[in-house]
Specification:
Elements (H helix, E strand, L loop, with lengths): L3 H8 L3 H8 L9 H13 L5 H12 L5 E5 L3 H6 L5 H15 L6 E4 L6 H5 L3 E5 L4 H10 L3 E4 L9 E5 L1 H14 L5 E6 L13 H12 L8 E4 L3 H14 L5 E4 L2 H13 L9 E6 L12 E5 L1 H16 L7 E4 L1 E4 L11
Parallel strand pairs: 1-2, 1-3, 3-4, 4-5, 5-11, 6-7, 6-8, 8-9, 9-10
Antiparallel strand pairs: 10-12
Helix pairs in contact: 1-2, 1-3, 6-13, 9-10, 11-12
């Protein structure tokens, strides 16, 4: 392989001059004749810059696979943050891994759009982010052999899926609050909006909270508040709780967006976090650590979930037939919002 030293020897210049010319260094001062001589020698010797070699390697990695992405949230929801940055993180992971694997022709369809036959015919495999209607699931099952679900597992005996263990994550958050001395723990969570969904989907955060508190003999239905996964709803729900009185000692809140809204409502009423009310939330998106009171939050590796989904689909396309269900671990990140022990 031709090196910069080889070119320098043939062009009768220094190696540093060759390097700077070939990399288009705007600060180098050489004559037009010297520049042309270096370029001509490098061409004759077949030299390729590092950037050019990397680009060629990317092209070699490019596959002919056509991958479709089905998003269970609408464009409006994504823009308004109703579903938190959670699904956006998964999508970013999918798209980044497609780019890394040399897949550039991925097509996207959303929940609010019809899954047309043409779309199915144009792809070799499909990644579903979120929940898909049973009717649509049946349609693609008849047309596509390669499907991966992310954040949902409709049938682990048939489909690949990538999920997080919400039950284990919620349990770790509640145990943390108990270890800090809190017994009266409320729950703020969300649900799918009826007008865009086909059925209610069980939220493991909510059901795990109910089971955990029931086993402790401390469950109170009037400490559960359900709205939508947004800052506005977190703010509204916490305002409702404050006005009603009988504020729990702590809250497990099912998304960082809701928790930030709840924080604002508490601060407006001069209720201190964590001195008066402790908070643990879910997702650990970037804004959690920069909230007015940095949030203790369960970190979900959404981007990695997306990347794994692409890898599973490619593995299927390369011949694997046994369905796999991958559970990505979570991590409780403890910060100021719950890091004060309650006086017992």
């Amino acid at each position: 392989m031709t090196t910069i030293k080889d070119i320098a020897a043939h062009a009768n210049v220094s190696s540093s001059t060759v390097s700077r010319v070939l990399n288009n260094d705007p600060t180098i001062s050489v004559t037009t004749e010297t520049r042309e001589r270096i370029l001509e020698v490098s061409k004759e010797l077949g030299y390729k810059t590092v950037r050019k070699r990397k680009n060629e390697q990317k092209l070699l990695k490019t596959t002919n696979h056509r991958i479709g992405i089905f998003l269970a949230n609408t464009r409006e929801e994504e823009e308004d943050g109703i579903n938190d940055p959670y699904f956006t993180g998964i999508r970013n992971g999918v798209e980044s891994e497609c780019l890394n694997q040399g897949i550039y022709s991925n097509k996207i369809i959303r929940l609010s759009e019809d899954l047309q036959e043409q779309f199915i015919d144009d792809v070799d495999g499909l990644i579903v982010i979120g929940v898909m209607k049973p009717s649509e699931l049946n349609r693609i099952s008849d047309c596509l052999d390669h499907v991966v679900f992310i954040n949902y597992s409709p049938d682990e005996d048939k489909y690949d899926s990538v999920i997080s263990d919400f039950e284990k994550a919620t349990t770790s958050a509640l145990k943390h609050l108990f270890e800090q001395g809190y017994k009266s723990i409320g729950y703020l969570g969300g649900r799918e909006r009826e007008q865009i969904t086909f059925r209610m989907v069980e939220d493991k955060r909510h059901t795990t909270y109910v089971d955990f508190m029931t086993r402790k003999g401390l469950y109170r239905e009037d400490h559960v508040f359900i709205g939508e996964f947004s800052m506005n709803q977190g703010y509204k729900l916490m305002n409702d709780v404050i006005k009603r009185g009988d504020l729990p000692e702590a809250f497990f809140i099912a998304s960082d967006s809701m928790a930030i809204g709840a924080l604002r409502a508490l601060q407006e009423e001069n209720i201190r976090v964590p001195e008066d009310v402790a908070i643990v939330s879910f997702n650990d998106v970037q804004m959690a650590k920069f909230a007015s009171t940095p949030l203790t939050s369960v970190k979900v590796y959404t981007e990695q979930m997306g990347r794994i989904g692409v890898q599973l689909l490619l593995d299927q396309l390369n011949g694997r037939e046994i369905p796999l269900k991958i559970t990505v671990p979570t991590k409780l990140c403890i910060r100021e919002s719950s890091n004060v022990k309650k006086n017992i």
